[in-house]
Fold:
Amino acid sequence: MRLKLVLIASFVAALVGSSASIAIILGRFSSLETLSAPSFMIAWTLVFPIVAVVLAAAFVYRHTARSRKTQALLTAMLAAFLILAFFLIASIYTSRTTPLQPPQPTVPRNVG
Structure:
């Protein structure tokens, strides 16, 4: 089995697919106002990782001689897990460390 090919192809697919989706999410949907009116960009955040995994699996399938299906399946599974890991790392990295507190209402004080 060509383990180097499987690892490199799945890593590149995960990097390309997740970074494209993360860039769209952080660039386009950074505020909550745009989520109230969804557009076709939401679909692209799902399409990029799927296309990257399929292309990597097809690449490995075409460039191996033996046990093609096994290596393509291994590439797809590894790429999918790496994409999930990249999404998790990006969500941890871009999250706020302290939650936003709502402003405290000012209570009128009677003086006198």
